[in-house]
Amino acid sequence: MARPENEVRGLPLRRAIDWGELAPLRLRAIQVADGLFAGPHRSARRGAGVEFAGHRVYVPGDELRFVDPRASMRHERIVVRHFETETERALRVVLDATLSMAFRSKGAPASKLAYGALIAAALARVALRGHDPVGLDLLGGSGSRRVPPSAASETFERVLGSLESLAAEGDARSSPDLLDAALEVAVRGARRGSAIVILSDFLDLPEGAESSLAALGTRGRAIVLVQILDPEEVTFPFEGPVVLRAMEGAAGEQRVVQTDGPTVRDAYLRALEARTEVFRGAAARHGGALLRAVTTDDPIEVTRNVFRAIASPATAEDSKKP
After folding, report:
1. Cα separation of 248 and 14, whole Å?
2. CATH number for the domain harbouring residue 161
3. CB count, 10 Å around CB of 67?
4. Domain match, 205 and 134 both
5. How many other CB atoms sit within 10 Å of the CB of residue 33?
6. Is residue 136 part of a domain?
7. Are residues 180 and 217 in the same domain?
8. Is 57 in the same domain as 173?
9. Has residue 8 been placed in a domain?
């Protein structure tokens, strides 16, 4: 996303996550995951997120609040209420951490990268509660490492550690190898039946990226693309003359556009929806879905909709669909 000139002067090529109102990540991710279990907006439809699946024996690392005292007395051992996702499959999350994801407009609760990290952490928490393996891969970024798929109790902490130390870095448009590297790792480690969730704005990816991303949805894998945008990107509210500069691109090569806000607003919005439809169509051709999320959206609903899309891409709820 291009930014007003007066908001990008001095923008570093490497930028730590702007957490804004979302910090601390651990607490927010737990709140979002808990909301899927007990929130007032929980859907009664099976597969909307998580379902009660009976009891199982307590293992170290389980949350004590899920211990069922009555069932424990009956079985004469500690048992916990077990919840599972509709999919009961391995979850692979790929988070775009290139520079365009660092954008945060005035008044937005957090940057796109921070919001994406929150959704990634919440997805991991819910899946791990169902004892499904979870892995995290990164497109661009620095300061963090990928998290190999695992259902171990410490996996959530590893995912949090990676996200909390992540910094936005890289330009996928001028360096297509960033995308190739991220997807190669993801597809190599995603077995048949896995669910792959891509969190990105899909604005500054190389040509043909939609085909590369959608191709992950082969061999029985479910693919869900989550487009994360800032409120300014979906409304283009600028009035009068404005100078826009792309957030990606090496110094001296960044694209600069001088224009008039009201004059180009409609054309910009049409171009945004057209690009979104390219990715939506590619995902649909491979049995997947694209959801749009704005950083002001309720992260509980966004996370719930991702699990809906994994379970049933054709009927996935997308309130932001153009």
Report:
1. 11
2. 3.40.50.410
3. 15
4. yes
5. 25
6. yes
7. yes
8. no
9. yes
Token pair listed for 58? 């307590």
CB 127 within 8 A of CB 86: no
Are 58 and 193 in a shared domain? no
Residue for token pair 């991303």: 213
Pairing state between β 2-4 and 241-246: antiparallel
Instruction: Judge whether 44 lies within some domain.
Output: no
- Per-residue pLDDT of 251-267, as tens digits, reads 445 566 777 678 888 88
What are the tokens at 126?
């819910």
Closest Cα to residue 57, out of 81, 37, 91, 40? Answer: 81
Q: Are strands 14-16 and 167-169 parallel, antiparallel or unpaired?
A: antiparallel
The pair of structure tokens assigned to 143 is: 């300061």
Alpha-carbon dihedral 139, 143, 145, 151, rounded to 10 degrees: -100
CA dist 35 → 22, 63, 159, 299 (Å)? 16, 15, 20, 9
Provide the domain count of the chain.
Answer: 2
Task: Return the DSSP state at 142.
Answer: B
Domain of 76 in residue numbering reads as 50-85
Q: What is d(CA 155, CA 147) in angstroms, rounded to the nearest whole number?
A: 8
Alpha-carbon distance 202 to 309, whole Å?
18
- Tokens of residue 222, six digits: 């479910």
Q: Cα(149)–Cα(187) distance, rounded to whole angstroms?
A: 12
Tell whether 117 is covered by a domain: yes
Q: CA 172, CA 170: separation in Å to the nearest integer?
A: 6
Q: Quick: pLDDT tens for 198-228.
A: 999 999 899 899 999 988 887 788 999 999 9
Residues composing the chain = 322
Distance CA 125, CA 159 (A): 9
Structure confidence by residue, pLDDT tens digits, 158-200: 999 999 999 999 998 888 888 988 888 877 767 778 899 999 9
Residue partners of 73: CB distance under 8 A and separation at least 6: none
